[in-house]
């Protein structure tokens, strides 16, 4: 059986280092399997988050050789045998311990999004919607909240604008509500002010790392930006609003 | 050791999956202050893994469908052991609970007329599962989590409860630790709802995550509650079998619901040979008839035998493998590529496509999957009142997978998600109502310090066993001796093994600090897993027959007299004892409905 050596981040935010572990490798193993084997055989206190181990829950996000990845969906065979594999926590978040980050800010961001508000029911048993009308919203609802897009976003990763910018994950969440055909809430003021949508300069890094292949920039962020522009910067519409208010 | 934090709520919900979230919402609606505790981050609970859909007789695709047909399917699927009151409430209320999710932002796949689409599943007479591709659980948990947060639930993430505190025979609080810091926290509440989910992590090949360690079963048992039907552990017929690192990962029944066929090594669609007497005449008798049904002619044709109940399909797969007709890696083949277009498969089963492509290197739009049974779901659990979800311990409730009664000897696919929202709602409403007449109890400090000392004991030992090694040994024992086919001899051995491991638990050591220490967490979880394991083995020994998910090689037939009793487990002088309890007989009109149809 083959052996492989892994460099794994151990420690906290201000006191961490890479530790080297060598383990035996089985066919088909993913990075998370390797972390679990290290944990079971050599370092029982090695901290990592995980749940479903099938790419559906978004818990096991880390950086593998510097790239944001779901460790449960990253096969060891994707790396040359000669290549070393280094696993580190997501860089855009504070580290709690080892591979586990503090993502509580993200949950506060989510709670700040104006909630879903449906129009009155179309019939006693609910609403009528065509599948094509909901395809776009369903694309957003695929988000597994893995935070890889938050991790790669330079506004958060390099410029640390966590207080000013809600981040791609929660723009996707907002789009999931706003693209729902029965939703009637206007979230444009929220997007402009507290969500800080203007910080996004459409570099599309988030789209590239999304394990659910959501077109985050094109299908979530740009349509939301357009709504903000329509609401706040369209002179014609501003005039119409002014007239209506009278 | 200090308790670093204390909280008080009217209703405390332990578990933040579908049942816990729905219970929290119901309790808040009733005016209660609610604490909601989850072992993982919010939205990562095992509900997120549910794929195929939730069963509710909406009648959108087939107007003939109604609660009576759903009730009948559930009762027949449960092989006589379902609690009829729970099955009736479930079938009757599921449609409203599902529609309510849409009002809270869920977006289910649509039928042509704009209403929710409904997918066929095993054991259901009509297409009945509201769904979103194969990620229905994700849609459900996101919807409930956002709604619960906006409604004002006080959420405690990555927090594990390890002890319920009773005062004067009533449940008064829960002692927990924060996973990130290892600090202890006390929750006092007027009533407590267990919504802790399943216990499948006690087996080696399982679709369950690290969370499913039967915590609620052990917490309830230690508090004096009764456990029921523990022998009934569902082995889902289709888990991945290769590569080894993903063995057990779920392959949704939706693959078969959408037309996927099971074949053996010889290319034979073997399920035609495994239709039980009880379901004779309900399923297609030729491949041609099954194909016509898949193509959409559902009134003149009967559904394919691949859509038999899960217990039947799982046992058929085992029989094929044992007869030497299995696939190269010890399963059978599941193939949808010949029945549906690549576009259709990617639209309806996107995560299955992704999962096989990424993890097994198999393209399911062109090739067959290899599948075999995987530990999936506990039909048994904490015995509850069928209407209020109350346990026999005053102030303690249980809802969702942790509770027993609805599913009897075998659960139908799709009935789990609807169970969560129907009984989560009932438990939340009942617990909130009871809470208005109860005051918070003072909890003696001595009890807390003893519990904390017990929980931290392995840090004080040197050179003891590694908890991960103990967990692996338990999983292998349950896999080998308490699996899909059981015998008296193997079960007796398992009982001895489990009791030996219970002793070994007190010799484990844990190193490092208390902050996010998986070795320590696993040691604490093992206590619950061993309680669950012993209860499953004892019940499996008592049930000397084969019924539903419980198969005894030494008693291959069903015994009609055992079809009218449940085995109940409780603690007596520190020992686990079993008792029998008669299944409540439904009234005549419902009995007739079950036997003769609508």
Characterise the protein shown here.
The complex is a heterodimer of chains A (246) and B (598). With 246 residues, chain A is α+β, with helices and mostly antiparallel strands. Chain A contains 10 helices and 7 strands. Chain A has helices at 31-41, 104-111, 131-141, 148-152, 154-157, 168-178, 188-192, 205-209, 216-233, 235-245, and strands at residues 2-11, 16-25, 61-64, 67-70, 85-88, 95-97, 100-101. A 5-stranded mixed beta sheet of chain A has the order 2-1-5-3-4. A two-stranded antiparallel ribbon of chain A has the order 6-7. In chain A, a hairpin with a 2-residue loop joins β6 (95-97) and β7. In chain A, α3 (131-141) packs antiparallel against α6 and α6 crosses α9. The termini of chain A are far apart. The model of chain A has no long low-confidence stretch (mean pLDDT 95). Chain B is an alpha+beta fold and 598 residues long. Chain B has 3 domains: 3-234 and 376-435, 3-Layer(bba) Sandwich (FAD/NAD(P)-binding domain), CATH 3.50.50; 244-374, Flavocytochrome C3, Chain A, domain 1 (Alpha-Beta Complex); 457-561, Up-down Bundle (Methane Monooxygenase Hydroxylase, Chain G, domain 1), CATH 1.20.58. Chain B is 35% helix and 17% strand. Chain B contains 16 helices and 18 strands. Chain B has helices spanning 18-29, 67-77, 84-103, 136-151, 215-223, 254-257, 287-294, 310-322, 342-348, 350-360, 415-435, 445-456, 467-481, 488-505, 518-542, 588-596; strands at 3-14, 34-37, 54-55, 118-119, 129-130, 154-156, 159-167, 170-178, 184-194, 227-228, 233-240, 261-263, 332-335, 369-378, 381-382, 396-398, 565-572, 575-582. In chain B, strands 1, 2, 6, 7, 8, 9 and 16 form a 7-stranded mixed beta sheet that branches. A 4-stranded antiparallel beta sheet of chain B has the order 15-10-17-18, covered by helices on one side. A 4-stranded antiparallel beta sheet of chain B has the order 11-14-13-12, covered by helices on one side. Chain B is globular and about 70 Å long. The N and C termini of chain B lie far apart (62 Å).
